[in-house]
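Continuing from the previous page of notes. For each protein in this section, the sequence appears first, followed by its structure tokens. Read the first protein now.
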Amino acid sequence: MAQTTNLNIAPYFDDYDPRTDMHKVLFRPGFAIQARELTTLQSILQNQIERLGSHLFKEGAVVIPGQVSYSDSYYSLRISPTFAGEQVRLDQYLNFTTPIVLTGETSGVQGKIYGRQAATAYTEPYLFGDIVKAGTDGESVVFINGENISANIETQHTSNYGSGVASLQAAINANANESCVQIGSAVSIESGVYFVRGQFVRCAKQTLVLSPNSNKFSARVGFVVLEKLETPEEDISLTDNSTGSPNYAAKGAHRLRLRLRLKKIPLNAQIPNNFIELIQIRNGTVVKMAINSEYSVIGNELARRTYDQAGDFTTKPFTFKIQEQIDNDYKNITFKGAYGVAAGSNVITDDNVLASENLLNLQVSTGKAYIKGYEVEKIAPTNITLPKARAFATVNGGVSTFNIGNFANITNVYNQPDIGNITGETTPYKEIGIFTDFTTTRGDATSSIGVDGVATTRGYRIGVCRARAFEFSSGTQGNTDAIYKSFLFDVRMLTFLQLSAASDAVNVGAQVTGATSGATGFVYLRHNVGAGISTLQLTNVIGTFSIGEK
């Protein structure tokens, strides 16, 4: 963004246009140099600097950081606009190099002054600073209402006042309990350099008072860019000084001055075009601050590479908290609201909505993430308004679906497994056996004897499981080839361990461990086959048992 001041007017006539692609002004012997040519020469060079700067930095980016700080303990002293019948001149009480020290004649309190605010039609003048010495009683830390105050310098209103002689009076409040000294808030910035309108502009050390008597202020604070043409008529330093002093007869060229000045605007106000936001404060808490330089094209390239390599990620994860927006009582229990107010208090939320018991507050914590390769950091929690669920709909015979895990397709179905609590049963989801063969006839399991001693036509039982759900899948219901889905869980396959001698000492549920192999398993069933031989059916086996081991 180039400068906004139009210089293609009298007397400058700077008609340089980058679209003409002219890059040099070539002076020739024997031809007079035009003022326009000298101005064009500057414009060509400035255009080159602007192009390079725009490649590296975004508009308003920090080049050389000037530290921004917020103080919620900024003391203000409200003083009377007159002293001894004379109008008070505040400017002489401000010295950035050697701050002026004020002393209360009655209290003995001393304070250094760092800022001032002139009187308005509605307020008295203020001086801002810090208390540096307690009063003569060793306890007082504020000036007394109405007391006379002296400075450690000579001052002048209409009359002259020597150093240490009273020249100010603390304001007298209508409310005697309200002190003339209040705690306010302010934003300060050190000297630095910012990329503004194609120029690398210096900012001077500044302090902006947000409020002289409140540290719960809300505002956006940043720079406004001021452009002004300076003339020798206004600034004698621009006259010819070749003789060692200003020559009023040789006024010379004009200058274009760019300055950065701190300004505060309300959070919900439209942001001016010449405003560069540095810090955002909400109810006395800093929620946003410009710390790092914002790079332009090179920043986009770094972000692209970061995203290609790592995608989106967080380095300090965000957390979320849902709570009432205002205090809400339900069944004799008070649920505290984020804004802690009762209904009807007309409190505006952080996102400019009237707080209500019909709304919820979603609080997003501080955190840091990289989105599309760009750094996103939140230094303060954010409150977001959500509507409570108040609408409803009635659905009759609706179907809901959800994922309940693995399933097996089965046919030749006879009845269905237990998938819930059964009257008379102590355990829901009754066990189902897994066998080596299909049943010959549905519902018939009464013919031969299996190795587990159970009459069955299903071969050997090789495992057990439970069913969480059972549903029709395809085919014709009732037919033997109809396919059903049986959603299984707690699937445990059996390991058969044959012992050389019958043993009644091993109980169901006991853990068995191989002395040599170290393999382990839990006894699901013990079956004495006969002739002094026992077979153990084990579940949850780890390792492999060895032949002949104990």
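Done with the first. The second protein uses the same format. Note its length before scrolling.
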Amino acid sequence: MFMWDQISNSNSNGLSVGGNIITVVGMGSITIDSAPSTKQKVYQRMFEHLGMGDHTAVANIIVTKVGNNLKYWPEDQDIIGKTLELLQDMAIGYSSSKLLLTLDTIKFLVRHHTADHFPFLSVPSNCRHRTTFHSILTRLLLSSGGEDKLELTFEQFLEPIVNTLTQLGSLSLSDLRSEPARRPLIGIFRDLRGIAASLHNRRTYGLLFETLHSQHLPLLPKVADLWHDQPDVIISLLRFMQEFCHNKANRVNFDQSSPNGILLFRATSEVVCAYGRRLLANPSPPSDESDIYKKRYKGMTLALNVINSALGGNYVCFGVFALYNDTALENALNISMQLTLGVSLEDVLAYPKFSKAFYGFIEALFKNHIATVLALETNVFMQVMNAVHEGLQASDALLTSLCANSIDHLCTFYFVNVVKGDKVLAMHNLNKHISVQPNLFSSLTATLFNLLLFGAPQNHWAVMRPMLSIILASESSLTAYKEHLLSTQTLENQKLLNDAFSKLLHDIERSLESANRDRFTQKLTSFRVSTRSFLTI
């Protein structure tokens, strides 16, 4: 609904319509259609009485006011924020976005999205608004027919950003680390993040990648190395990289003969490694320091999110790196592993965002790079498994799910390769770890069954996932848990519990095929319901 504040006196920040000033900030989201509906006709009648004209004229008034707010209120974050919120609401709507493409103000915005024309872009406190502003403009420009109606190509839209990147790339290392470069760096990464966030298909993502690749991507690891100790700069860089590497809607999809997926991962690895090495070289501040998250863990969280997006993007054949002796993957995994293992488990679990990035990285390792995990020294490997064991029991359902998946990957690997023995190097390493810590599987089995029988309901589906694989990997672990649970029950309950376990394992094949997994999951659900009806704690 429209909510109008009419002011009697004119000033440079309002629009005069029939002697009144229309203030658009604070107006709710609207839908403007080229063929007005019945409800819109009511508003149109009202606008005619106010001397505003039809819905197209009203839209032009609103967008012109939006442009004036962005130009004349650079220091007022509230006005800038609400103005961009309104413009975003209009850009999201299908009909209203089509109408926006016909307006001269929008054409001016996409051609002049610089601080020279819109001073709010140069105000440090408006960094977040820069991202929103460029996200909106990119969405409009790349919408169906957007480039034709706005008479501007995506490459032309990127020219001011490319020029800034070129200037920054030409600086010496000392000048790049100087204070005059701080604001341009933060601004350019914020802008690029907004642009990347609005790329939803292969074509548009490819346009940005081709623009940045080779000439401008080498600047990013330099910035990560030089500005590692300045949160405002490094956070802006890592947030852009996280968005740039994110394969949402399968947009990062290059041709089969294209090396771009590998080049993208290599660039990502260089940024993460440059930042990670600097972090590792500097001692971590005390855990009780008030701003330790901002100084260290926030950047570490984003770096892990970047590498998680790259590892899970499905646009890289990781086997190529070892085949051609390219260390990009190895370096990225090693640096990320050192970062994660260098933080106490207490600190990991104390910060929710950090813990999700931490366990997301661990799950990615166990899923696709388990040989790297198993190649660790036994004490380090057990440190990882202890973290997984603790995360499995966390109250956050996402952490439980990530840890359960990690256990499933490990047990699946063991079950599939146990017959090969030490012929497989990774299996040899796993057997070595198990020989030092023989109760590894039994402790995980006990925790999984305890969570199933006595844990919070929201975690049940997560903990069911690895149960079949861990039982097949170590049947003795299930036997040990069963005997322990029987010892805690009365004779009458022991008989019922034996029957419940027999039903659970009946007709379950020694395979991890999807059908067998699904059947076992259904049996686990029945097992939980039946045993909870008589178990005593």
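What the second structure shows: The chain is about 65% helix and 0% strand. The first strand starts at residue 5 and ends at 7. We return to this in next week's lecture.
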